[in-house]
Amino acid sequence: MARIGSFTNPLMLGFEELESLALQLSKSPCEGFPPYNIELLSDTQIEITLALAGFKEEDLDITTEGNRLLIQGRVEEKENHQYLYHGIALRKFQRAFLLADGMKVKNAVFENGLLKIDIQKIAPEFKITKIKINQGHILTKKE
Fold first, then answer.
1. What is the pLDDT of residues 76-128, one digit of tens each?
2. Dihedrals phi, psi of 87, to nearest 5 degrees
3. How far apart are the C-alpha atoms of 65 and 8, rounded to whole Å?
4. More exposed terminus of the chain, fewer Cβ within 10 Å: N or C?
5. Which domains does the chain have, with CATH numbers?
6. Helical H runs in the chain?
7. Would you state the pLDDT for residue 30?
8. What pTM was estimated for this model as a whole?
9. Cα(118)–Cα(39) distance, rounded to whole angstroms?
10. Contact 65/99 with Cβ under 8 angstroms?
11. Strand ranges for 33-92 from DSSP E
């Protein structure tokens, strides 16, 4: 039996990718590490801040894959250390954020254990296009 998607409304043309993204997000782990803030700086600017105590810049990797912002961190655990209390998490992590169309990562700064990522919203250009009606027929799959 074929799976019926959430975006099956016949008026929602071309939203199949949104359904795929929603499925990806639902499968991503809801782990609390690393802690982060998302701050609205202005109508067009957002800043994501991740608390990464113990990490160095070379331990971090920031990429965008389509509309997905992916932040990964990996720290080599120091061997032969004997802790009385080990409360600073230095485990590898992966944190993903889904960016809306028109949102672009502009800058990333790592300072004092905080990774700050600046994201800018670029307003889409609103354009009205007149569609000419031609004589003839529309090509179908068979043609």
1. 777 788 889 888 777 899 999 989 888 999 999 999 999 999 999 988 788 89
2. -105, -10
3. 26
4. N
5. 31-77+86-121 (2.60.40.790)
6. 16-27
7. 55
8. 0.68
9. 10
10. no
11. 36-42, 45-51, 60-65, 68-73
